[in-house]
């Protein structure tokens, strides 16, 4: 029984300390504990460039999705915080039809809806019905997700 209490204490302690590296309004992105990624949603609709600037003003970037787990978590956050309104995610067309994370890193994970991405679009949003990605014009006004590496 003592071992069980110790285990519960350790798990509780780790859960509490996980949240310590993220400032108020941000939550740790589950499954990214090694990287200490913090994420928040921004319900204010703006074009991609303003959303990107808004994230940068607090030391963050538009949220980059690295796996199905990240995608699922942001989908749940979209449902909860953004009234199921399609948010911008950190995926862009490099201009030659290659989609990547802002800053030029190639996509590690992709989750496009059938028929997407479209050649004439340069930005990406998450579909509120399917959690898959749609390409869109960067001037469309959408909410967004911001993320950054925490201090832990």
UniProtKB/TrEMBL annotation:
Keywords: Disulfide bond, Signal. Residues 34-147 form the C-type lectin domain. Residues 1-19 form the signal peptide. Coiled coil: none annotated. Pfam families: Lectin_C (PF00059). Gene3D superfamilies: Mannose-Binding Protein A, subunit A. It comes from the Eukaryota. InterPro entries: C-type_lectin-like, C-type_lectin-like/link_sf, CTDL_fold, Snaclec. This is C-type lectin domain-containing protein. It comes from Mesorhabditis belari.
